[in-house]
Design a protein that fits this description.
- A hairpin with a 6-residue loop joins strand 7 and strand 8.
- This protein is α/β, with parallel strands linked by helices.
- Helix 6 crosses helix 7.
- It contains 12 helices and 19 strands.
- Strands 1, 2, 10, 11, 12, 13 and 19 form a 7-stranded mixed β-sheet that branches.
- It is 32% helix and 25% strand.
- It has 3 domains: 133 residues, FAD/NAD(P)-binding domain (3-Layer(bba) Sandwich); 129 residues, Polyamine Oxidase, Chain A, domain 2 (Alpha-Beta Complex), CATH 3.90.660.10; 101 residues, Guanine Nucleotide Dissociation Inhibitor, domain 1, CATH 1.10.405.
- The radius of gyration is 23 Å and the shape is globular.
């Protein structure tokens, strides 16, 4: 009998399994896909190696960076020495939004006061709003009852300031525009990522593919730690037994069951709910928010930046993935990341191609004469939970009322929005739940029933 069974092979499940194994537990991890990594995965199409999404991290994401070290993947990521975001606007010279070496919050003062997409009055107003945002008490539940956009409006931040500045951070971190996002989560992001210390918001990038950085090394690390990994294994039912839990499912040899004294369910919210509802009732409802990625292969280099943000354009963020993707010599593979993309999710590929290639031509002069060799769209319909007001109260903790059963995933109450950091934190917390209970309830049978 395994001591711990982990259901789900994303970042949360990988972390929980490694932590439990390193604590001396016998662990079995099951994953329905034929690979590890969960929502952070890669695939090959049209001869290119593509990631499903353009995941980045910050210097303050210490849990995720720690996992990369455990996996031996640090050589395949890069971290900015100082926060620097090239901001592109049609018809205007690029502007580099970068921090100085001053301590927080003064490290962003010069960048904000010189920001060309706002008037002088708007820049001063934005500075006052940023200071007020830094003074909010994150433990106040009232912050999760209002939108970030409404709070900004009360502090004189008009639509232009929100679109040109505040959404530049809100969209990629919260997967919602400020007008729809929870003030509580927005305040956390800005305080943790930009205001806690000067270097907290320095951006980290995945130089290789997600499969190279997470999926493949995670499989090797788990096996080295003694974890039994079963890929292509679909969990269908979880029930309590006298000794703990029985997980029933279907693997390569047909119907199978796994008995364990403790279980960590590290699945997406909807799949976790289907597995757990018969045991503990339905999970609190959480809506989802989509992300779309547009993958474009040009016959020449059109962008001389590793990544850039867009203002005054439908292009939110774009990344040069030529090296990681294996683009042919002389060509450039760019990926456009569209967060909070509910409207774009309804558009056809031809419509997206027409609109965004035109936007790229407006944004990048070299793209006007370039030939598009390939245009692909990847859609994540439920990429993250919807970080709207009220979502904080609906995120469950890692521990449950059932002994030996823990939850993991970005939708659990980590305090963070749905990020790589949140996933790793959730897995570590779930491991602490089951390990702590093992230490205090050793050899104590679990009563059968709800």
């Amino acid at each position: 009998m395994s001591r711990v069974v982990v259901v789900g092979g994303g970042l949360a499940g990988i972390t929980a399994a490694l932590d439990c194994a390193e604590a001396g537990e016998e662990v079995t991890l099951v994953e329905v896909r034929r690979r590890l990594g969960g929502a952070a995965y890669s695939f090959e199409r049209e001869g290119l190696h593509m990631d499903n999404g353009q995941h980045v991290f910050l210097r303050c994401c210490t849990a995720y960076r720690g996992l990369l070290e455990r996996l031996g993947s640090t050589a395949l990521v890069s971290l900015q020495p100082r926060l620097e975001i090239p901001v592109l606007t049609p018809g205007r010279a690029p502007y580099r939004l970068q921090r100085s070496g001053l301590p927080a919050p003064a490290h962003l003062a010069n960048a904000l006061l010189r920001y060309p997409h706002l008037s002088i009055g708007e820049r001063l107003g934005a500075a006052r709003a940023a200071l007020a945002l830094g003074r909010l008490e994150l433990s106040d539940p009232a912050l999760d009852e209002q939108t970030f956009g409404a709070w900004l409006a009360r502090r004189g931040q008009g639509p232009r300031a929100v679109a040109a500045l505040w959404d530049l951070i809100a969209l990629p971190t919260l997967n919602l525009p400020a007008a729809e996002a929870s003030l509580g989560l927005a305040a956390f992001v800005f305080q943790q990522g930009l205001l806690s210390s000067a270097g907290a918001g320095d951006i980290g990038f995945h130089v290789g593919t997600l499969q190279q950085i997470i999926g493949d090394p995670a499989l090797a690390a788990l096996r080295q730690a003694g974890v039994e990994v079963r890929l292509g294994w679909r969990a269908e039912r979880l029930e309590r037994t006298e000794d703990g839990y029985r997980l029933e499912g279907r693997g390569g040899s047909g119907e199978e069951s796994i008995d364990a004294t403790a279980a960590v369910v590290a699945l997406p919210h909807d799949r976790a709910n289907g597995l757990l509802a018969p045991l503990m009732g339905p999970l609190p409802e959480l809506e989802s928010s989509p992300i779309i990625n547009l993958h474009i292969l040009y016959d020449r280099c059109v962008l001389h930046e590793p990544f850039a943000a867009g203002v005054g354009t439908p292009v939110q963020y774009l990344f040069d993935r030529s090296a990681a993707g294996g683009a042919p010599a002389g060509m450039q593979y760019l990926a456009i990341s569209l967060s909070g993309a509910a409207a774009e999710m309804q558009e056809s590929v031809p419509a997206l191609r027409e609109r965004y290639l035109a936007a790229m031509a407006e944004l990048l002069p070299r793209a006007r004469t370039a030939t598009v060799e390939c245009f692909l769209v990847t859609r994540e319909h439920a990429a993250t939970f919807r970080a709207a007001p009220g979502s904080a109260a609906r995120r469950p903790p890692s521990g449950t009322r059932l002994p030996g059963l823990a939850l993991a995933g970005t939708w659990t109450d980590t305090g963070w929005p749905a990020t790589l950091e949140s996933a790793v934190l959730s897995g570590a917390r779930a491991a602490r739940v089951v390990l702590g209970e093992r230490a205090t309830t050793e050899a104590t049978p679990v009563a059968v029933g709800r």
